[in-house]
Amino acid sequence: MKRSALSFHYLASLLMLVALFTFGCNKENKVGETNMLYGTDSKVWKTDKETTAGGDKVAQTDADKDTELRFYANGNFNMSSPAQTMQGKYTFDQPGKKITLTPDGGTTSMAFDIVNLTDDKITLKGADGSEMMLESE
């Protein structure tokens, strides 16, 4: 009887460890629901950090730190920085983990892979492999 209880305890502990490990691994690099991008109506995202395609950290200028990207529930976006402003439309492919920004009056769009999207963080990966990590305001 003692051996059976010990085996059960060991098995339960092992299952709990596997569950915790699985949950911890799945939390990182997860693309959440569409409304995490814009909240209830709109949400402001600010640059937290950037990396090059090789993974090296890019030094943030004051202008980078002051850049805001706002996504609206209606599919519009607005980006503003001390140097420029841009507005337009975006499409978010949640299952495909992609977002495409098309500026008003522009003929080309900017497409990014979404590496991670939670309520307070988003990581966008450019075609060249560079990444931009943003935090919600």
TrEMBL record:
It comes from the Bacteria. This is Lipocalin-like domain-containing protein. It comes from Hymenobacter elongatus.
